[in-house]
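Usage example:
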Amino acid sequence: MPSLKDLKARITSVKSTRKITSAMKMVAAAKLRRAQSRAEAARPYAEAMQRMLATLARSMAGRDGAPKLLAGNGRDQTHLIVSVTSDRGLAGGFNSNIGRATRRLIQQRQAEGKTVKLLPVGRKGADYLAREFREQILDRIPGSAGKDVPFSAAEALGARIAEMVERDEVDVVTLVFNRFNNVMSQTPTEVQLVPLALPTNDNVVGDGSEATYEFEPDEETILARLLPRNLQIQLYRAMLESAAGEQGARMTAMDSATRNAGKAIDQLTQKYNRTRQANITKELIEIISGAEAV
Amino acid sequence: MPIDVEIVSPEKRLLSRAVDMVVVPGSEGDLAAMPDHAPMIVLLRGGVVSLHEGGRVTDQFFVAGGFAEITSERCTILADSAVPVGELSRTDGEARLRDAEAAYEQADKADVPALEPLLERIQSARAWVDTAQS
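Running the assembly step on the lines above writes:
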């Protein structure tokens, strides 16, 4: 049986743990709001870009010589997988879900005989993948470390991937990231970036605006400029959603940790009181039996 | 009847307003968008977007490049970056111009398709400097 002193020490330590987890929960909640509003702010650009791409793709349909970023290079041998995780842990299953999803995807592709290359964004995902697929990691891209995601980060990564595609170093590019459903739930999602999977239905454009567009200078030139941008925007959105999801997941994880700590404290306090009472009773019995013996 | 103008950068929406006419710096020359303009997608060069209301220019933004989508009722400008002309810093523009020119100097002059974006960067930076001083 633990002594009173041990129990007291354990209660104090769980109490300070609870203080930390509840503080982390508050911080995550504040950061979550920020991250969400940033994701919100990035939406108009991404939507306008989707609209333009759909228009262009419709106008280009059936023509030869589509850019590699849109149609791929016709091969399907080398796959690049970009996975987005956070730099910090203590966010529940947030990072390991992505790690598992990526791992499954890699194994599936390798079973089909493809070559797989990896570009993990965020330290946690890189560490996870390095255990098993160290040789296939081209580079580790640092995440945002809980701060705001700058567009320049997505810009640089997008440009790099576009260059690899142009040089035929990779044939297919897939992005794995946590889609932000709400504060409680994030789903690991795979999106194929190259060849580009465009929405096939026209409801992106909306009815009535099916009018034929004019292009200046011409479709090819605009498309050639739009596609690398689109790649950057897709990455940026994934990073923003992942950043918001990270805070959401941490908030949920820290909330349940705080509650568990509370429960542990209650149990320990009860045990402490019982032990104290038992000790007093024992001492009394000793005194009484001592007095009787006299 | 006004036309809705939206200027958005990847990070946020900078402006959303209804004006009489908007002039955008297209890659092949400036063009004005008014209500009932034919649907059009335009590549932009570095230059100034001017908003016209009641017969005069009410606001001007410098865009470093991007795209514009014009339809009969709105004009969406996807800018790489956009700054109100009054807040444009000349020193920033000069720094950009130096970077762009240095990148062009180092580039392989035989690789013509690769030179085009570099030249556009120089054009955009020059437009920045020119706009900032006037």
